[in-house]
Amino acid sequence: MKTHYITILFAAAILFAAARMITAADHASLETVSAAESLSRLKEGNERFVRHRPTHPDQSKERVGALANSQHPFAVVLSCSDSRVPPEVVFDQGLGDLFIVRVAGNTLNDAVLGSVEYAVEHLGSRLVLVMGHEKCGAVQAAMSGHQEGGHIPSIVKAIEPIVKEARSQPGDPVHNAVALNARSVAGHLRDSALLNKRVAAGTVEVISAVYNLESGTVQFDSGGGPVGNIGSATKPKT
Ligand SMILES: [Zn+2]
Fold this sequence. Notes:
5 strands
């Protein structure tokens, strides 16, 4: 009888150990890249791009196959739709590296916010970058006050609140508005309930940057560190 109990205890111990191994394996497969490491990868990739020394990583046939069933992009990039600012190119990244949301003026709406939240919640991305760019047409349209047709006003309206603030600052007002808009959108993303708890816990960072069309350089706000919720661009309805 005693032997029987020992056998049961032994079997239970093996099952427990197996369960622990499976959990560890799951965590390993979901292992994510830290925000700091993600930022380093973006900076290094942009440097390669600026120096015209891109390595075009992660575009092999093997990479295609490896990503067939899952993805773990190391960063989320919200950028403008402008044809001159493709994130994979300016950061020299490949398949499965970046979860990208592009919309004119890198503005926020519910679908954009939901897309960013999805990547953080389900794909394990820990760095969110909002990237504006110099001479952004959407920002210039918001500053011009010109009445646009169709659905274009929805984009312009999202940027208008920061125009006055940008004009009150020294320097080029369009540059100021581009930087403020990106910083403001980053602030609103940081405020979303789903992202905020991770930002507060230090597991996710939301930062902003401005891309220079002439040099190809991405200038990260405050050296890539977190920035305050500056500006008051329209929040999405949540
Ligand atoms: Zn733009």
